[in-house]
Every structure is written in C-alpha cells, then in structure tokens.
Amino acid sequence: MDKCIIVCEGIHDEERIRKVFHNAFCITTNGSEISDETLKMIKEYSKDYKIIIFTDPDQPGERIRHRVLEVVPNACEAFLPKKICISKNHKKVGIEHAPLSDIKDALENYIDKDAVLGSLELNDLYDLGLVGASNSSMYRANISAKLNIGNPNAKTFLKRVNALGITKEQLLKMIGEVNE
Predict the structure, then answer these.
(1) CATH 3.40.1360.10-classified regions of the chain
(2) Helix (H, G, I), strand (E, B), or coil: what is residue 10?
(3) CATH number among 3.20.20.140, 3.40.1360.10, 3.40.228.10, 2.40.128.90, domain 4-115
(4) pLDDT (tens digit, 9 = 90+) per residue, 88-138?
(5) CA pair distance 93, 41, nearest whole angstrom
(6) I need a surface site. Which of 31, 45, 158, 171 has the fewest CB within 10 A?
(7) What is the SS3 assignment for 5?
(8) Cα–Cα dist 134/73, whole Å
(9) 127: helix, strand or coil
(10) Residues near 156 by Cβ (< 8 Å), separated by ≥ 6?
(11) Who contacts 64 (Cβ-Cβ below 8 Å, separation ≥6)?
C-alpha cells in the first residue's frame, strides 16, 4: 500500500483497514456529506499518490465514491459485497464489519483505471443482453457480485469490467452461469 491513500467513510473503517495494513494512509470522509475541503485535499494528494476509494456497499457509500470520482476521475476503486459487511445485529452495513481477510483481498485487488486492460464497448453489452433487455439489470447485478465490483449502472459496469480486462467471451460464460 505504498504511495497509496485509501478513502474510507469513518474512523472505524480506518481502524479496520489498519489492522490489515498497519501503515495505511487513510482519509476519512466522516460520512456521506463529504466536505469540499476534504475533496480538495484528496484531489491535491492525487498528484503524488494513488487514491483508492473503499467505501461502504450502500447508497451513502456510492454517493461518496461518486463525489470523489468527480474530482479524481482516475481514482482506483475497491469493493466488498454488502452481505459480508453487515453488523452482527443486522442493523448496520459497513467496511468496519467485514472480515479482515476480505478487506485485505479487496484492497490488494482494487480496480486501477490507469491500467485499463479490456476493450469492450457498449454495443457488446447490448449484444450480450446486459443492456436494453428486461433482465439486463439482474444479469449485471449477478455478474457484478461475482466480480466484486459493486452494483453499477451499465456505463459504470462497462468501465469496471474493462479495468479488469474482462472479455466478451468471459461475460458470456458468466451469463450462462447465472442461468444455471
């Protein structure tokens, strides 16, 4: 995690990350109402550090992710599925509730947009029924869960699968697995 800054939501998330990566440099947003000052700081740091967005798998977490991506479009992204981020009493969702091994895995396998490996286009998603069909959203959600890339809309899905270097053939195979 050298030369990286992890953007997370709160102090408990940061504490959990530091249990895995002891020297991790984190910036906490203090919830979904991320301040303009914090966004400016993240943008400034992005000149010298790789920014990794690692927010909770919920609506506020997605809002923070979107706001950071507005100021640092090439920020890297790490994801965890919602089902492993649920508190023991089942009332809260957050990175702070995830197993340490999953946090480690997510941060070691973040999506780096500067290293785009794939060449899929929106037309490919139409051809595969991942856009424009009545069940497109369901297929994208299932594949996104399998790839651990959040639950994005079609345009963001395309960016994320390209960042992972996923091919049209691999997507077709995943769709077949969803149908089984």
Answers:
(1) 4-115
(2) coil
(3) 3.40.1360.10
(4) 998 999 999 999 999 999 998 888 877 767 889 999 999 999 999 898 999
(5) 26
(6) 31
(7) strand
(8) 31
(9) helix
(10) 150
(11) 7, 9, 29, 32, 34, 53, 55
